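Page header: ASSEMBLY MODEL / two components / 687 residues total.
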Amino acid sequence: MSLIKYESQVREPLVDGHKTYHDVTEDICHTIEAKPTRLWYIGFYISVALLMFGVFSVYREVTYGIGQWNLGRTIGWGWDITNFVWWVGIGHAGTLISAILLLFRQRWRTGVNRAAEAMTIFAVICAGQFPIFHMGRVWMAFFTLPYPNTRGPLWPNFNSPLMWDVFAISTYFTVSLLFWYAGLLPDMATIRDRAKTKFRKMMYGVAAFGWTGSTKHWQRHESLSLVLAGLSTPLVLSVHTIVSFDFATSIIPGWHTTIFPPYFVAGAIFSGFAMVQTLMLVMRKVMGLEQYITLSHIEVMNKVIVLTGSIVGCAYLTELFMAWYSMVPYEQDHFFKYRIAGPYGWSYWLMMTCNVISPQLFWFKKLRRNITFTFVMSIVVNIGMWFERFVIIVTSIYRDYLPSSWSLYYRPSIWEIGFYLGTFGLFFTCFFLFAKYFPVIAIAEIKHVLKTSGESYKGEMTGIERMTDEQLYADAHHHDDHHHAADVKVAHN
Amino acid sequence: MALKKFVVGCFDEEKVLFPAVDKVRHAGYKIHDIYTPFPVHGLDKAMGLRDTSLHTAGFIYGLTGTTTAVTFMSWVFTKDWPMNIGGKPHFALPAWIPITFELTVLMAAVGMVLTFCYICQLAPFIKKHHFHARATDDLFVMVIECTDKTDESALSAYLESVGAKEINTQVAEDGWWIGRYDREQKLYNEPTIA
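Prediction written out in full:
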C-alpha cells in the first residue's frame, strides 16, 4: 500500500463510457459469440486465396529450385530476406507493448496488448518461412539443429550469425507464444463460463486449462507475467540485433557497420507500431471497440512512431556520414554512387520520404489524433520500412568490387512476389481467425485498470486531488492501520 | 480426492470484499480460496498467503540454460569436433554469447510456464469444480471449507452480515479430474444471483 493511490484526472481515461465489470465482459465477448459478419467472410476468403497463391509459389520454388526466383550473382539475397527482416521487425511492436510497457507500468498497453501480441506471433511465423524456403532444399532444414547425427556427429557452426538467427527466431516465437497464451488462459475461462452451446463450452474448456481464478493462481500468474516480460524485453532487443548481425558481421560495404543493432531495433519498433495502427484502427471500428482503444491510445502510439522514425532517420544520416568520413573508396562509392544515386536511387528516396520525412507530421497534435491520417501514415511507414530493408540488402550487393561482377537490374519473379503475397494471406488468415475466436482485448487486464482509469471512476479522484499532502498522508496511514481495509483505490495500487 | 462441504459467499465490490476478508479471518474461519475475475492486488496479502517463489524457479531454469549452452558449445568446438574457422580460437566465447543468451531465455520461459501449469494444476482437459460461473465475469467468490465443528447456518449468517450478496452451501470435489465442460456441469445457468 502506498501513498500514490490515485490516477490524475489530467491523464485521459483508458476506458471510455460508464462500464461495470460485466459490461467489459459483454463488450469483448459478444463478437466471439455472434455469427461472423459478411465483412469478416469477405476478408477471410481473400486472405485464404492469397495464402493459396503463396502455397503455389512456394510449391514452384521447392519443386524447380531457387531458380524460380530472380536471384543470382551477385544478388543472393533479394525479396526473400527483405521480407524476412520486414516481418520480424513487425513482430517487435507486440512484444514491446506487452513486455517493455509492462515493466514501465504503462497502463495504456492493456487495450492493445493482446492483439499486438497475436500480431507478433503471426508475423514471426510469416518471417520464418523466408529463410527456411530460401535454403532451397527445404527438406534439409533440420540440418540447422544441433542433434546427434550420423555424419560425425557434425555440429552446426555456433559462431555463425545465421545460426544465431535460428536460435533467436525460434526462441522469440516460443517465448511470445507462451507469454500470449498464459495471458489468454483467464479470458478463455471467461468465455467458457459464458458459453451457451455444448461445443463452445468444450472447446473453450479445453483451451482454458481448467482455470478457476483462484487468488493463489492469480498471484503466480502475475509473477509469471512479470518475469516473462523481464525475459522478453532483452529477448526482443536481441532478436533484431542478431538479425542485424547477419549483415553487420560481414565485410560488404553498406552492411559492415556497428550502428546496425540499435538502428535495426528502432526500425523494427517503428514498423511494428505502424502495423499495430493499421490493424487496430480497422479492428476497433469493425468490432465496436472504440471505448477500449481510444484516441489517446492512438496518440501515444503515434508518439512512439515519431520517436523511432526520428531515430531511424538519424541512423540513415550517420551511415552516410561514416561512409564519407571513413575515406574508404568502396564505402563511399556504395553510399554515394550506388545507393542514393544509381539505378536503385528511387528506392532510397522512397525510403527517406516514407520513414524520415512523413512521420515528422506527427509532431502536430491534430494529426496525431486524426484517425484517417494515422491510418494512411501507418501504411506509408510500412512501405517505407519494407524499402529500408530492400535498400540495405539489394543496393549493397548489386555492384560488387569489380565492374565485371556488377549484376543486371534485379526484378522479382512472379513466384517471389507470390511468396510475399502468400505470407500476407497467412498473416491475415491467422488474424481473422484470432479476431473471431479469441478475446481481442485482455478482459482481465482491462477489469484490473477499470476502477483507476475508467472514465466513470476517474471522477472519484476529485476528492483526493483536493487533499493536502498531510491529509493524504494521514489518510494512507489510516488505511494501513486497518489492514487493507475499505478503500478500493488502495486495493488497486 | 474427496468431496468436501463448502460455504460460498459472493461479493460484487472490492470495497466490501477487503474488510470482509479481514473480518472472516478474525472470526476464526479458514478461507479455502477467493475466486476473482482479475488479479486483485493486495488480496493475497489480506488472505495471508505467502509470496510465490515461481520467480526463483525461473532463475534456476535460466541458469540451467546458460550452463547447457556454454558447456555444450565448448565441448563441441574444443573436444568433439574442433573446426578451424578462419584460424580463430576454438574456444570462441564472445561468439557464443547470442546462443547462450537465447537458450537462457528459452529455458527460463519454458520452465516457468510448465512449473506454473504444474503447481496450479492447469492443463487441457483438466476440470475443476466452479463455485460460481460469474467468478470469471464480475463476482468475487469467497469459499470457506466446513469442518466438523463448523456451524453452516451461523457461517452463512456471518457472511451475510459482512456483505456477501449470495450465499450457498456446496458439496464439491476440491481437486481436479479429467473431464469435459460440455458434460457433467451446466455452467452459466446454474448458480446465479441478480
